[in-house]
Amino acid sequence: MALLDIKDLTVRYTGRGREIEAVRGVNLSLAPGDTLGLAGESGCGKSTLAMSVLRLLPASARIGGEILLDGEDVNTMKWGRLRAVRWTTAAIVFQGAMHALNPVRRVRDQIAEPIVLHADTPPPPAALRRRVDELLAQVELPAEKGESYPHELSGGQKQRVMIAMALACEPRLVIADEPTTALDVIVQAQVLALLSRLVTEQDIGLIMISHDLAVLAATCRRLAVMYEGRLVEEGESAAVIGRPEHPHTAALAAAFPTVGDPEYRYAPATSSELGLPDPPPPPSGEPLLRTEGLRVTFTGRGRSVTTAVAGVDLEVHAGEIVALVGQSGSGKTTLARTVLGLQRPTAGRVVFDGTPLPTGTRGLRAYRRQVQLVLQDPTSALNPRHSVYESVAEGLRIHKMPGDERARVAAALEAAELRPAEEFMPLLPHQLSGGQRQRVVIAGALALEPRLLVADEPVASLDASVRGEILALLLRLRARLGLAALVITHDLGLAWNIADRVAVMYRGELVEVGPVDEVLRSPTHDYTRSLLAALPTLGTPAEH
Amino acid sequence: MTAPSPRALAWRRRGAAFAAGWKQYASQRAGLVGLGLLVLIVLLAVLAPYISDQQGLDVTKATGGRMEPPSGEFPLGTDRVGRSVLLLTLWGARVSLLVGFVATLLSIAIGTIIGILAAHYGRWVSAGLMRVTDFFLVLPSLVLAIALSTVLERGVGTIILAIGLTSWPSAARLVRAQTLTIEARPYIERSKALGGGHLHVIGKHVLPAVLPLVFVNTTLAVGSAIVAESTLSFLGLGDPDPMRPSWGSMLRSAWLDSAVIAGAWWYLLPPGIAIGIVVLAFTMCGRALEAVLNPRLREG
Amino acid sequence: MRSRRVALGITLLVTALVTVPVAVPAGAPEAHAVSEQQTKILRVGVTQEVDSLNPFISITRTGTDILRTGFDYLTVYNQEDYSPIGSLAESWETSQDKLTWTFKLRDGLKWSDGEPLTAEDPAWTFNKMLDDEVARTANGSYVKQWESVEATDEHTLVIKTKVPQATMLALDIPIVPEHVWSKVADIGAAPQFPMVGSGPYTIQEFKEAQFTKLKANPNFWRGKPKVEELHFIYYRNSDAAVTALQNGEIDLVNRLNPTQFDSLESNPDIARNKAQNRRFNEILINPGAATFDGKPIGDGNPALKDIKLRQAIATAIDSKTLVDKVWGGYAEEAQGYIPPVFGEFAWSPPEDLKREFSLDEANAMLDEAGYRKGPNGVRLDKQGKPLNLRLMTHAEANLDEVAGPFVKGWLAEIGINITLQPLSDNQVNESTTRGEFDLAFSGWNANPDPDYVLSLQTCASRPNAEGKGNTPDSFLCDEEYDELYNQQLQEFDRGKRVDLVKQMQEVLHDRATLVILGYDNALEAYRKDAFEGFPLQPREGGVIMNQQGYWGYYGATPAGEGPVPVFNDDGTASASDAETSEAADEESSNTGVVLAIVGGVILVLLVGGLLFARGRRRTADERE
Amino acid sequence: MSDILTPTEDALAEAPPPTRGGGALRYVLTKIGGGLVSMALVVVLGFLLFRVLPGDVIQTMFRGRPASPELMAEAEERLGLNKPLFEQFLDYLWRLLHGDLGQSYVFNVPVTDKILERLGPTLLLVGVATLIAVALGLWLGTRSAWRRGSRFDRISTGVALALWSTPTFWLGMLLLAATSGLFPTAGIVYSDTAPDFLSQALDVAHHMVLPTITLVAVIYAQYQLVMRSSLLEEMGADYLTTARAKGLRDDLVRRRHAVPNALLPTVTLVFLHLGFVIAGAVSVETVFSWPGLGLLTYDALRVRDLPLLQGTFVVLAGAVILMNVLADVLYRVLDPRVRAS
């Protein structure tokens, strides 16, 4: 008998006169001890599916079909029975562990809570303590960490606590909902490895949900792909990725390039008819932007000094795309801010086009016309109250650019491939898709006719299918306008996709700088190597 | 067809947004009731000179007896010198509403400016301003207001000043918190990167985002200001002009003249109930507005 | 389930907190009844807080009222008509030059603790005041001109003064026991309780802003009072006191407003006492304030220097309406400067001089005097400026608050714009003394002898340039008036003097620097079921509380123990011939008796008046 | 704090937020420092406010009694009023540091004594009323948030709003009128109650009923509304889904997880609104003649007893500031998040 058998599941959300069908007739089954990856973009219904297994959906959800957990239909269970089943038969590792843990209770108590709850007789304190220590040990955390509050733990540690908590009642099924989304590559690899190991060791059934096919492929035996509430493809991981049948699956798979594979070099996945430009000639001459011994330190409240950027020399030539790669906390965002003049360097200087970065307000304003910023999350990078037109025109107005404002806005929108421009102008950000929003941000930057674009994780918050389109746009802009770009990312695949040169940043320093082909194919620094090693690769489950 | 100008578009969009907002507002019964009450009361207050005779407020022309119970001539009875309580209550609305509105505007203006400045400029400005705000926040504001209205000459202006100067800190804190939230948004960073200065960021991004909240807060604060006015007037710090009665000064008269002992409920109840209704109406409107403007509260 | 239990617990807790005290009164009244059976307590509701019970410090009405029952004086005002009679002192004599006073104390006087009370005690008390500035805080003015005080023997006290002093038989100074107070380090500090005293009661306990408890003093030389305990209970608001009276929580309360007084009428257990006050209420009109040496001060509107304008204002103020609407009928209409309670000196304007209230007439007067009406109906003064006048009111005085709008309304009708300016009592005092007013509410307590209140309107009573040194009233400085004033000072023929005083009032009436508003009554009430009655002072139509003596509290007669005593000047008491209850509602016609007695003590009082009316009304309202 | 990850992970993992040793002391000291700054502002404001009040202090002192210019000069000298303002301020500061708030003009006793006498009744009234209001407000707020939109929610929120909208003194007046004869109308204890503790306590409780009900009625609404919205906010939180997924009963989810978190902002509010409670106390004490600090303040204002006013102002403001410092410290104990940031 299957551990979990979902039959013709439909979930509708009703409210305010509208009805949204989140899940439309999904059939799925999982054998005990088996692992299944559930892939899909945001809004495809994968999280709703996961939550419905333990009937955790809000009251506005209408559920149809059957969810047989160990042969028992969850939908028709009595509340008491349902509570008993929760966590003992199936447990969930939630996404965003920061919020999924109660911020004001010690993690030990939170781990122990279900154990006490589901025990017939409350275990003696000593035994309980031992059990929690054991669980912590399983997730490779020392027992002392149990005394911590969630905010005292790092993201990876919190995710480990979540896993320990999920294993507390020895469930037969664990559902992991985007367990590694907010984590860095290396930590992600560690957590995935841990999860795989535990599931295998304890013979637990696992459903893992992610938008990242590579992550799923690295962990799960089987893969299911969801699209608009339907299951569009299901099968062995390798088969699904190797021979995607559904175009959506193909798009998902292509979004995560294999670093080192020349097929993906200068070739982000795009379905645009505009195609991709040819690789550019190597740049020469004076660099457009140069940092010299740049150092930025912050003084905390307790007079503790944090060095975010520790002496960086970096060059970007005209028409060149440089990828700045590093983990969060490595100082790459601070570096970008300093380059933009949003942060004053403690030491060293930034030289643009041969002249040092001005310090006066007026000079800075003029400088900022030439160097533009593209932020990670286009949703929050646009004022929700401003229309596309206003957002794009904002820079024009600040700099009092001469000429017809409307024509300039239209031109910028065209350049960012939002066509026809007129139609987009009156729209508000919430009426646009994620990719369109990012194009508006880019258009806003282009309107000022800059020479350098600083893009901070430009595609990190976009769905996989859109990712390639934006990257292709950057490449085309470079080819057409000669625009140089400094792209900040944690994603080595992105660098491989579009960058000419890559700079690897670690703890405030550039540990390795060079052409992408050299650095990513034959890294010299340990850190670069460990970054590459942590990349989940399609088809072959990671071994650690 | 020529494309409409961006400004016209913006206005059209605002109109549509307003219509949508109104639809949501209208779906809340309490908000509608509150708004209806408010419109009615404001109308009555504004129209008071046209629907009643101000001369009736002049004690020398009072025709009624001392604290007469309600009758055909005086639907709500008379006060201690024979004036119609109904007339007093009607005219009292003018002063109470005036004080409520102006004092609130004053306090909100101070609060908004300080709140935005404290959030926008870092470190010392912020620390200094917040210190002052916290200080005023914990000060027993009634004591301070009483002291202020003792120092200054009696009158509506003084009352407004006393209330305005003591009630801004909560608005300042609220605005500061909201501004901090807004300023943490990447679009502020983007705007700065585009070259926007302080004024640009505050004027184009922060203020428009903070204003709805300020508006809600204003609606809620008018009620408190009206209660504060009545308390100060009750304590004898109100406007002494008999032609400008407020609900608080009516209650003071009732109190001083032992309406409680005399059982003159018609003298005691109308001003108090009027205060309650107006404050409640403002509160209901404010909460309904809050629900419209703050999506988190809307669900469920 | 647990949350349900918690909820239940909270409900129970809240209910308990609310209902337990509610349940208490079921038992509490019984406790009250029982305690009344055992000890006779007179519980008096007072609406003014006690400032201090230190006899050297206290100056409030309530404080001195309590101290009068706790400490005896050398002399006291009699019950009949405020004549000074001996109390601790049995007799006295003065030297030819009026500089040496010799008081003989009674035999066998004892303090409440049993120690003998001798001449050493007043001697110590007075000498302390001479030596120590703090001890002069409350009553320092009496001893300002003293040379020495000496107890020549156990019964004899000799006081030498630097100049003849008229107030020597009106020394309102509580005599304290030397054996207690000589050990007190800080004479200004709050006293220790119980206090050793010599009055009809001894002060036992004082709870700040709550109550003062006194016990009957068995050693009081007139004999122990019938009531065993006397409690003064503080009520911040008088409604609460009235409710307490209705509930039987207190037995006696005064200073009622008309509404309260009326509401008590129907209560069969409560008797009311409407007493004549010694007070007149007025509005001052600044005729151009100046210092005693004639230099102009203050910022009064110069237009008011015109007597025609002042007279028009006086004509536009209607005393009858004020009596009806402001005092609810519990007052008498305005006549002369001296209140009608002092019938002999009281004057009422004859028909030809009488200003009948008439707005038309006032308007005509102003038209005639050349005050044209401006565009908005406000008249213009001679300089063409609109007549905007300030009317200063006492923020805490009900009279001012109610009457102010009336005056404003009337004057608006004759084209004068009034701005009401409510200020604290002190601010009004300061401003009026400095001449910084146009119109202001005022009022005084007059005395059997009118000298002091008359002196207020003389040139000499005006202040120095800082607005200090003297207490002026209306800043009138009129040759004719001053002339008459000096004449009446030296006139020993009573009939002629009365005549002079009436002429002075006529002058005052004509000059219109002040407008008399009326004379309000003192309204008191007590539990008839608990108390038979109280001795009034003056005996006819007088007050129970705030007497110039201890008669009311001392003679309090519990129900069934009547009749209420009458205290004679020889120290004896006789049965009252009339019920005090509601007595005052009938106007007294016994002026003949009053006259005779007043005549007997007139010489003493002639110069002694100073002490009675040494304060202005609003503060006089708050203190003695 | 020692990092316990494996060496490689240690080297590579993101750094957890730093936790400083001695943070607690630092935090407390910062809060106390802030409180002291506020207190200093109160002291300065108290001085300025009550020295700029118009009026002649000496005249006020003598209250119209005839006094010779020499006597007035003497008093001026004694009170140091002839010195320059700054010297007066230093004087005032010096005496304040010694707990001397000056001498009341009206009562002729040290202001400190006067305030100490009145502190008890106010503490009793405000304390009991706050406790009841907090308990009531939290309980009602929790219930109405949890059953959002229910009849209980609508009615209890409506009642709270209506009471909150009512002027305190008016509510007191109505209560007085409505319960005439049931409860004492003024004061804290009858003068003729037996002196034993039980009778006294019962009598005080009896006297407290009306003032307490009035004060509670006016202030509890705030706590209810804040608790309600605070809980509503928490109700969307992910950790509650976690708790439910663990199989916790609804009321356990509420009690163990939602309420403790929602309580935190409410705790701050309780203390932040003490100033409001004190304002209510002034009204309530005036209406019910409760012999507390509020009444003293109002009476001092009435007769312009400046030192007394200054004293009550400094003490009331100081008390609120002190309570707020305590609240900050308490908050730190309650909310582990504050400890690290």
Describe this structure in words.
Chain B: This is ABC transporter permease. The complex is a heterotetramer of chains A (544), B (300), C (624) and D (341). In chain A, 37% of the residues lie in helices and 24% in strands. With 544 residues, chain A is α/β, with parallel strands linked by helices. Among the domains of chain A are: 60 residues, no CATH class; 245 residues, P-loop containing nucleotide triphosphate hydrolases (Rossmann fold, 3-Layer(aba) Sandwich), CATH 3.40.50.300. In chain A, the strands form 4 sheets. A 6-stranded mixed sheet of chain A has the order 6-7-8-3-9-10, sandwiched between helices. In chain A, strands 16-17-18-13-19-20 form a 6-stranded mixed sheet, sandwiched between helices. Chain A is globular, with a radius of gyration of 25 Å. Chain C has 624 residues and is an alpha+beta fold. In chain C, the strands form 5 sheets. In chain C, strands 1, 8, 9, 10, 11, 12, 13, 14, 15, 16, 17 and 18 form a 12-stranded mixed sheet that branches. Chain C has a 4-stranded antiparallel sheet with strand order 4-5-7-6, with helices on one face. In chain C, a hairpin with a 5-residue loop joins β21 and β22. Helices cover 75% and strands 0% of the residues of chain D. Chain D is built from 15 helices and no strands. In chain D, α8 packs across α9 and α8 runs parallel beside α12. Chains in contact: A-B, A-D, B-C, B-D, C-D. At the B-D interface, α4, α5, α9, α10 and α12 of B face α2, α7, α8, α9 and α12 of D.
Structure keywords:
heterotetramer, B: 300 residues, mainly alpha, MetI-like fold, 75% helix, 0% strand, globular, D: 341 residues, disordered N terminus
At the first level of CATH, what is the class of the domain at 289-533 in chain A? Alpha Beta
Beta percentage of chain B is: under 5%
CATH architecture of chain B: Orthogonal Bundle
| Average of the residue pLDDT scores of chain B | 84
Any idea what the radius of gyration of chain A is?
25 Å
Poorly predicted residue ranges of chain B: 296-300
Secondary structure tally, helices of chain A: 21
Give the class-level CATH name of chain B: Mainly Alpha
How would a textbook summarize the main sheet of chain B? none
Class from helix and strand fractions of chain A:
alpha/beta
Whole-number total of structural domains of chain B? 1
Major β-sheet annotation of chain A: 6 strands, mixed
Looking at the structure, the CATH topology of chain B is MetI-like fold
Global shape of chain A:
globular
CATH superfamily of the domain at 289-533 in chain A, by name, is P-loop containing nucleotide triphosphate hydrolases
Give the percentage of residues in beta strands of chain A.
15-25%
Q: What is the 3D form of chain B?
A: globular
